[in-house]
Amino acid sequence: MPDVQITLQPSDDAPILNRNLYGHFAEHLGRGIYEGIWVGLDSEIPNTRGMRNDVLAALKQVGIPVLRWPGGCFADEYHWMNGIGPRESRPSMYNSHWGGVVEDNHFGTHEFLDLCELLGAEPYVCGNVGSGTVREMSEWVEYITSPAQSPRADLRRKNGRAEPWKLPFFGVGNESWGCGGNMRPEYYADLYRQYNTFVRTYGPNKIERIACGANTADFTWTEVLMRNAGTHMDGLAVHYYTLLDQTWPPSGSAIDFQEREWFSIMKSALRMDELITEHSRVMDRHDPEKKVGLIVDEWGCWHASEPGSKPGFLYQQNALRDALVAAVHFNIFHTHADRVRMANIAQMVNVLQALVLTDGPKMLRTPTYWAFDLYRVHQGATAIPIAISADQYTLGQDAIPAASASASRQGDRIAISLACLDPNKGRTISLKGLDLQSIESARILTADSMQAHNTFEAPDAVCARNFEVKLEGGKLEFELPAKSVVTVIANLD
Q1: Span 307-359, pLDDT tens digits
Q2: How far is CA 327 from the centre of its chain?
Q3: Is 175 considered catalytic here?
Q4: What local confidence, expressed as pLDDT, does residue 473 receive?
Q5: Which residues, other chains included, contact 36 with Cβ-Cβ below 8 Å and sequence gap of 6+?
Q6: 357-373 core/surface letters (b: 16 or more CB in 10 A; e: else)
Q7: Which of 27, 103, 122, 298 is catalytic?
Q8: Annotated catalytic residue within 103, 175, 208, 223
Q9: pTM surpassing 0.90?
Q10: DSSP of 162-219, one letter per residue?
Q11: Which residues pair with 215 in a beta bridge?
């Protein structure tokens, strides 16, 4: 008897897996923007219009669909007018949230939107509600999107951009329950309605307006926002970080840990399913037609910062364990794709669970990068609901499912992705439900140790590799190795 039995259950009304479930987040935090992306036109590091070429190439390969900026907590102290015009004339600012550093504002609106165009990603801008004004937010939207002869559109032209940009997503504040203003939900709901009114539509551009949602399990926040402002929004955000023992502040090393810490992190990651289920239940009471998307625009592992790194920069290494966490999240997002429309990992480069790390001119792809690469095939595909019967991975008196999985379809092409959460023992997988005719490809991400990670000396120690699986009578059976992520692409004809 196989350890894990998966039955594909195609449905005519299954949701599309929005490509934005694989979105990203880049905040003015540590070395995420400066050095990680922006090195400037005069840098010896090869760059395109100030953006480093090696990072651009890596991110383009993984297919970034949407990028959130400038924060995060930083968004509610960011004043966009300081980041436009000649760079040498832009005023510097003190980053009070992240490390107390002074930045020169050389990476601003034009640079961000240029980055999105270079990556082929849609921009998601987060506006300043905490310390900004309605006018400031309204004029930023005008500056970016208006084709008219108007003061802010004319200023954009003066600064070198004749045509307006497309701006499909705009966040009205960030974490307004905390760093964005320490507001009550009733107060923020009213403030959201006011600010949102002035996020105007200009020309053909259509903006989906995203309200600040709950911190983890604050279902009251979701209830109040949906009741008082739900008809005025296109999306409601929620933030949840995977923490050791699900406790704050973050603790535990990203690479120096044992099985207890591995298990704790996996259990914490699986909690995302419970949170989405409950937030969706609250939203369903007010929005049964699911017009408002649940936007998980901050998620990922938050470990203790690397020893010796600058306080407040949130720089952490990234091990195979983090890639398993990413796979678990993707499978959960797929399960809830009727409500979850976007998710943005925190963060893209050099911060928290990053896809890419840099050190001066050196760059590496993390194991999390390769998890994104393995799951890229699901972007825009139709979900295939699955029934999964899996044995348990136990540690002491506690237990979690040993495997996580999801599947999707594009025409006659089927993609199945699986993760084995047990670091010690593989599982035999049996998959049925569709008459598969051939295997197009299979790839795996795994390593000998739980702590395996890439370094600048060995940047490809942990990466996706080809994996052999076989079909027998239209059914797929294979051994899923311990602590691994596998994606199989099969064909029906």
Answers
A1: 999 999 999 999 999 999 999 999 999 999 999 999 999 999 999 999 999 99
A2: 12
A3: yes
A4: 81
A5: 55, 348, 349, 350, 351, 356, 358
A6: bbeeeebbbbbbbbbbb
A7: 298
A8: 175
A9: yes
A10: -SPPP--EEEE-S-TTTTTT---HHHHHHHHHHHHHTS---TT---EEEEEEEETT-H
A11: 239
